[in-house]
Amino acid sequence: MITAEKVSKRFGRYEAVKDVSIHVKKGSIYGLLGSNGAGKTTFLKIITGIIRPDQGLTEIEGEPVYERPEVKERALFIPDQPYFFQQSTLMQMSSFYKAVYKRWDEKRFQKLHEHFGLDPHAKLSRMSKGMQRQAAFILTLSAMPDVLILDEPFDGLDPVVRQQVKNLLIQDVSERQMTVIVSSHNLREMEDFCDSVGIMHKGRLLFERELEELKTDVCKVQVAFRKLPDSSFLDGLNLLHYEKRGRVLICIVRGQEEEIHRHVQAFEPAIFDILPLTLEEIFTYEMGSVGYEIRNLIV
Ligand SMILES: Nc1ncnc2c1ncn2[C@@H]1O[C@H](COP(=O)(O)OP(=O)(O)OP(=O)(O)O)[C@@H](O)[C@H]1O
């Protein structure tokens, strides 16, 4: 279980994280989504105890993290640019990890670097971006963490390695109840990978929900009428977005399907359909509702 309660962090006068609370169940994968500069990286660094928040509390399995090496040992962070000691090889980094992380699994390390085909004696600095990221995963997963915090983890990995890394993570989540928080802009990927998501914008958490619940809570209503109804039709819906294409109204609506169905049927539509939304659509419409939307840019 990972919790953050009303966490805030300023850099000078700029408030990068404002009053953010999250709750992540043990043995689950939580996707932290959001706009550029939303504060995701800053928040992840607070969760892992790298940065001290100005206000609020964070806990991993009931224990505070900041300046607590015994908790940090069980909670590892892979930043968006993995860090290795200068001139080091994977083998040298593994000696460091072995010394620091008590649960280090040498057999796993051997298996993983052989599987990914990385030369353990080659300098990490001379490896490609994707290979360095693979090295970071090999080291981190061999340390057998209870909690894994990942910032844009799959960037630069080819599709095959990407799937292999995701499978390894899912295996650790299901077999040893590892808890994962992952930030990403790839919503298609997050949709299949996460159990729950939180969306951040301008330092604030807009909401957090289980993905299944989220998908049943917002839907797309496509409806056409012989004669357009009066304003009470739209007023009676909890609208996130609405557009008219010819005679068809497309409404993105928050609410329970049964209620929406009842409301629309009362206006005797000629055609009527309720469709589920993709995570990308949910993200776009939720962000639109706080004024962050796609506008045509002419330069
Ligand atoms: N060390 C720092 N000093 C000053 N400002 C910082 C620092 N770190 C982050 N910021 C600012 O805090 C804000 C949030 O940055 P952060 O990197 O947390 O966002 P993000 O959501 O991870 O963004 P992206 O999706 O673009 O990677 C940005 O405006 C950034 O400029």
Walkthrough of the structure:
By secondary structure, the protein is α/β, with parallel strands linked by helices. It has two domains: 2-202, Rossmann fold, CATH 3.40.50.300; 215-289, Alpha-Beta Plaits. Helices cover 35% and strands 30% of the residues. It is built from eleven helices and 14 strands. It has helices at 40-47, 69-72, 90-100, 106-116, 129-142, 159-176, 187-193, 211-217, 232-235, 257-265, 279-289, and strands spanning 2-11, 14-24, 29-34, 55-60, 63-64, 75-78, 147-151, 179-183, 196-201, 204-210, 218-224, 238-245, 248-254, 271-276. The strands form three sheets. The protein has a six-stranded mixed beta sheet, sandwiched between helices. Strands 2-1-4-5 form a four-stranded antiparallel beta sheet, with helices on one face. Strand 1 and strand 2 (14-24) form a beta hairpin. The mean pLDDT is 92. Adenosine-5'-triphosphate is lined by residues 11, 14, 16, 34, 36-42. The site of adenosine-5'-triphosphate has 11 residues, from strand 2 and helix 1.
